[in-house]
Specification:
By secondary structure, the chain is an alpha/beta fold. The chain is 40% helix and 15% strand. The chain is built from 12 helices and 15 strands. The protein has a 7-stranded parallel β-sheet, sandwiched between helices. Helix 2 crosses helix 3 (49-63) and helix 8 (216-226) crosses helix 12. The protein is globular.
């Protein structure tokens, strides 16, 4: 297959990528012109946490807001903490399963909760449940007078027909597997504390964020580039550029309410894995190979409510596809963390 020209200007380095990911939208800057008080980001050391914390710091600086952005994690990778500090984000090391340590965290009127456990769940179910339900209880009790945005997942929904347009916020949860069950448990714990203390919250069901070092588009691109078969059983997915997902999450601080507002967060497309592989193959000059066949159902979310609130993502999915194709062909760094998007039994 002849390689098709990439029309989007590529992102060529990690530094350029991280600048692009954390670039605040005008709406986020406007948020921090109005929102007062410090922002605490719990679980800042994960895949998305550094992007969100840096975006908030940049938006505050543009808005002339001198409040602090404080990132909290165990920081098992010291370089993550160092880069956050260099970006103007203050950091606190804390194990969120230590109730005393959580109680010692600084006060903040604005809290984004991003901590959780997904990969490695199978074989570590007790730790998964502890991380996804006990840590939220400690946090929700400690910050019951704050406004919270709680990251959750579309995995709390059942598999739905591909032609349905995806599960809406009104779709009854029916989680498959212990990770998804514990993720619903996390939501229920936060809902309990919201009801008990009238804590304003948004439960932010994300499905799935992508960038160039991680995500479903990268997973498929790596297989196409290596000539490996692309699994088709989960035949369709939803994705959203990680920068947009972080911008929306920050804007949710203004939407927090009790009972919590539940909000699906993803792009508008039902993206076919087969189409994605062929599109990447065009850009890479590779003929994709496949294994299995598409099922009639998939894990899909309908984010129409978020689109009405925030508009469509600022970075189109085909732009991300082109960026990822270039990134993979150039052998640029990845996080080496497959998404396991193809899993249908909930075992991660």
């Amino acid at each position: 297959m002849a390689q098709q020209q990439i029309s989007q200007p590529p992102i060529t380095s990690v530094e350029e990528l991280e600048e692009r990911l954390s670039r605040p939208t005008p709406e986020v800057v406007q948020l921090f012109q109005q929102l007062q008080g410090d922002l605490l980001v719990l679980g800042v050391g994960g895949k998305m946490g550094p992007t969100l914390a840096r975006m908030a710091r940049r938006a505050m600086d543009e808005a002339g807001n001198t409040a602090k952005v404080i990132g909290v994690a165990r920081f098992s990778q010291p370089e993550v903490r160092e880069r956050l500090e260099q970006a103007g984000v203050q950091t606190v090391a804390c194990d969120l399963l230590d109730a005393d340590a959580v109680n010692d965290l600084p006060d903040a009127p604005n809290v984004v909760f991003m901590a959780g456990m997904k990969f490695g769940t199978t074989g570590a179910e007790p730790l998964t449940w502890a991380m996804n339900t006990i840590a939220p209880a400690y946090v929700a009790n400690r910050f019951r007078r704050s406004r919270l945005v709680v990251f959750s997942t579309g995995n709390v929904y059942p598999l739905v027909p591909v032609a349905s347009g995806g599960a809406t916020e009104e779709t009854p949860p029916a989680p498959i597997g212990e990770y998804a069950q514990s993720a619903l448990g996390r939501e229920r714990v936060f809902e309990y504390f919201s009801a008990r203390y009238a804590t304003p919250m948004v439960i932010y069901r994300l499905n799935y964020a992508v960038e160039l070092r991680y995500g479903i588009i990268l997973d498929v691109a790596q297989k196409v580039w290596a000539g490996e078969p692309v699994p088709l059983a989960m035949g369709c997915v939803n994705v959203i550029w990680q920068g947009d997902a972080c911008a929306w999450a920050l804007r949710c601080l203004h939407l927090a309410q009790s009972p919590p507002l539940v909000l699906n967060a993803t792009g508008p497309e039902t993206l076919s894995i087969r189409y994605l592989a062929y599109r990447l193959g065009e850009l890479m000059g590779k003929e994709p190979r496949f294994e299995g066949v598409e099922a009639e159902t998939a894990l899909l979310s309908n984010a129409g409510r978020a689109h009405r609130l925030f508009g469509y993502p600022t970075v189109a999915v085909d732009t991300v596809i082109q960026w990822v194709a270039y990134w993979v062909m150039q052998g640029l760094p990845t996080l080496s963390k497959p998404t396991h998007y193809e899993v249908r039994d909930g075992r991660f």
